[in-house]
Amino acid sequence: MITRRDVLSTAAAALTATHLVPRALAQPLSKTVHIVTGFSPGLQDAMARLVAGQMSGYAEAIVVETRPGAGGRIAVEAVKGADADGSAMLFAPLGFMIFFPHVYKNLRYHPRDFTPVSTVASSPTLLTVGPKMPADVETLADFVAWCRANPKLATFGTPGAGTTLHFLGTMLGRTAGFDFLHVPYQGGGAIQDLVKGVIAATVMPIGSSLGLVQSGDLRALATTGPRRCPFVPAVPTVREAGYPSLEDLTWFAFFVPAKTPAPIVSKLNAAIQAALRTDEVRAGMAKLAVEPDAIAMGDFARLIASESDRWKAIVEATGFVPTD
User: Fold this and answer.
1) Mean pLDDT score of the chain, rounded to an integer?
2) Considering only Cβ atoms within 10 Å of each terminal Cβ, which end of the chain, N or C, has fewer?
3) Nearby residues of 291 by Cβ (< 8 Å), 6 or more positions away
4) Could you tell me which residues are beta bridge partners of residue 92?
């Protein structure tokens, strides 16, 4: 079974691999290609445009569309029903395939409706505290001790209930033995309230609070990646802090409808890999606080299955009741 740690060794190789494309597909697609994302313009939209800008060899015209709504599910459903000819693809967090099936009762798609093409980037989650926290709380151990001593104040914010970030915070409380009250927000509201001292902590994507951590307005206590994040190298990982079960990365990836012919999928994969090797994409991702992270197609499919099993167990262990 492939794990998150296994893919780190294969990602570097994938970025330098040579992909052979059948001669029949050597020319760019003449049909306009649509890359669909599931949220309002922001991190995912920016990443999709960054990669698309370096994929001229794949298609003559590539358009990035944002179709927000239903937590991203509208975009997934749109691509599910699109032509399976390489002209429509979904760019989304891996959670759409490995996590959503376990938190929604009436999901109108299944991971098997899609062919995974390539991961593009990954990013750890950051546990951050603000002015509500005493100055002597400098480590995750200090924070856990404070939460145990102040149960009514032990709160954490995320972008919403039923998200992976929600479950990571819940897992911390369960593992460390304290009641960690979740406060769901929309957009960047959690960070705003953290700065104001309304909540004690946030469990958010690293880009959400990186600037405030670097300026000293907020304190980062741990990252969830398998190694220290280059954007906050002084911040220990959850494994270093004694909580290896919280280790997690958010991967962003491309998917196409399941019936897309294999040669087209291979051509698209090659175009994405080539884009990820360009200086423009690498520099752009650094500005977005994400790391290029390409996983070979075979390993990618196995990773989806492994992570789906892991998240299913986590959701069931918390007693979360799937919603509509």
Assistant:
1) 89
2) C
3) 121, 122, 123, 230, 285
4) 253
